[in-house]
Fold:
Amino acid sequence: MMSLGEFGRRIAMLARRRKFDREMDEEMRWHLELREKEQAANGVSAKEAHATARKNFGNALALREASHDSWGWAWLEHLAQDLRFAFRMLRKSPGFAVVAVLTLALGIGANTAIFSVVNAILLRPLPIHDPSRVVVIHFNIPKLNLFHTSVSPPDFHNFSKHTNVFASTALFLSKGVNLTGAGQPQRLLAMRSTATLFPLLGIRPILGRTFTASEDTYGNSHVVLLSEGLWKSAFGAAKNTIGKRVQLDNESYQIVGVLPEKLQILYPHIQLWVPMAFSPHAFSDQEEGDLCCMMVARLRAGVSLQQAQSVMNIDAGTNGPALRLKLSP
Structure:
């Protein structure tokens, strides 16, 4: 292990390298002159004495490099030399310099973006309880070249009856809303979800509560959950935010809870959550029956993904679109 004194000596050598080189050149020149004088004293001519002294002394450049290796960090000196050469070349060709800098910037930006996605999806654990038991349900219709299509409320109502397969089910879809009553008006992305979603995922609010079953009914749904980011930016992270009212698309909603920031891993752009609150016609072929939603379910203990898939395929029928279950997200 390098001592503190050795480290300081090497730093000093790097800081005054030119002076070190001058001193070394002078010392090598002094040794050469001394050897030439010794040769001349033995009766050798001045030309031969000079040649013999240089031959016996060795390669001055190699000796200088060896001295640098022993007194400093050769790799750092070579890096500095390469950087100086690179800057000189870039200065001579400004057009090439601009292209090189832009290429590096784009490359670094792309790598950062890719790593962010990989880190969020593959490296960081999902912020939900036992994600291996949570599945996403969707349709595949190969004849129409449609894959991973969404689920309608009537489908959700039908699939949720399989309580022998699913411990719980939930439905959600996003929509844009205008938020007023919390500083400057904002256009935000909100999520309509059934009250079962948060218990299914194992998500608990950091403040207040989530939706109740009674609030997830038509006409009794004017409550809202805030993302932690919106709570901090629009309400200053005030604890008395719970109970306040805001306007969403000119309708009054009461704030009942704040959801943790870790939920942004799953839904990065969602700032508000409101109850799904199906209309009276939601489970028929009218109005909300045509809504395109995402359905998730938690498998019942002891039920495998393959078993659940078989049950859902039977439910869909042989002539209908194929149902597909996949592990979340």
The CA atoms of residues 114 and 138 lie 27 Å apart.
